[in-house]
Amino acid sequence: MRRPSPSSGGPITRVPGMRALLTMSALGFAGYALLLPVAPLWAVHGGAGAGGAGLVNAVLMLATVLTQTTMPTALRRIGWQPTMVAGMLLLGLPSALFMLTDALPWLLVLSAVRGMGFAVLTVCGSSAVAALVDGPRHGRAIGVYGLSIAVPQLLLVPGSAWIAEWLDFPVVFALGALPVLGTPAAAVLGARLQRVTAADSGDTASAAPGRARWRVLLGLVLPSLVLLAVTTPGGALLTFAPQFGGGAALAAVGLLGFTAATALSRWAVGGPADRHGPRVFMAPLLGLCVAGLVLCAWAIADGGSRGVALVVGMTVVGLAYGSLQNLTLVEAFAAVPRRAHPTASTVWNIGFDAGTGLGSLVVGFVAAGASFAAGLATTAVVCVVAAGAVLAVSRSGR
């Protein structure tokens, strides 16, 4: 594994193109965050059960993952700027259409369209970090980029269910169109990336020989596994916290703790990742995630609502969730040559969104047959397996 060494430089936010990236990301993730817990609640409002509610975000993430697989080709053939502008529109515009129906089939269609836009936002955003900032500062750059993603979630995920309950669902759906306001920033950033990546045109991992492509993908297996493991419980908490019991206020406090810990940890871990490498932190953080999940499961077991324990557990999970997002992306970029960074970004985002979708789907169906506590315990087992894989690979010296 190549480990970048820290280097001095000006503030990350002064790197050309970074401010446009942060603006686009903040507005895009604001629209995403608002509907993440509210769209399943809207499905329940229309008569869907826990399984149907879980399908809403599962379909969102399935469409995201499927679209992400096409992103290297789309960027090469269509170009950064039109792809990114289209992505922001696909993510934002369908939100307003949720006002028209709470029927589950239509909610799934709209979620699929939003997933296509979210795929563009996620792949282009993380690819932009690698393209705009030099390797020795990737950890810090990813931390700043992570703040632009996590702060909207910090403010809006806990508050969206409250807004829906006290002001009504259409208010949330109107605010969910915020990504549309990010299209000018997407256009500016797309033009910048087109110039920056011009030198690498035709030299991407997708154009490399088959054996080289397999080496690239092999290097991405470990960070993808770790990311999948931690985003599965993260997706479950984001989707189902309002349904754990205890009312909207407790859900809002729990999600506030989760998203605040995510935002701070994703930013704070950037410097240590640049200094020591990301892998040394992975297994301990997965263990921390397991501890938080066990506490959450106990808090809601047997229909109980142990509010303090639930909030503390969700906050602990948020620490691992945010830190491992940064660390796995740094690991992915360090594991492949520069020309393969778009592929690394695509694979990383597939792992992130597949985990989020699996958390929504698996925990939803486990809850339908047993309980939410059993669903969270299932995701804790996944984290234990991933921690074992990290320790095994580290001991092998790979």
Characterize the structure shown.
- This protein is mainly alpha-helical and 398 residues long.
- It is built from 16 helices and no strands.
- It has helices spanning 18-45, 50-68, 71-77, 80-97, 104-132, 138-166, 169-175, 183-196, 210-219, 221-240, 247-268, 270-276, 282-300, 307-335, 341-369, 372-396.
- It starts with 17 loop residues before the first helix and ends with a helix.
- The model is unreliable at 1-8 and 202-208 (pLDDT under 50).
Q: What would you call the shape?
A: globular
Q: How many distinct helices?
A: 16
pLDDT < 50 stretches: 1-8, 202-208
Sketch the topology as an H/E string, one letter per element: HHHHHHHHHHHHHHHH
Query: How big is the Rg?
Result: 20 Å
State the share of residues found in helices, binned by percent: over 70%
Please indicate the percent range of residues in DSSP E strands (runs of 2 or more). Answer: under 5%
Sheet with most strands: none
User: What structural class do you assign from the helix and strand content?
Assistant: mainly alpha
Query: Tally of extended strands?
Result: 0
Mean pLDDT, all residues: 84
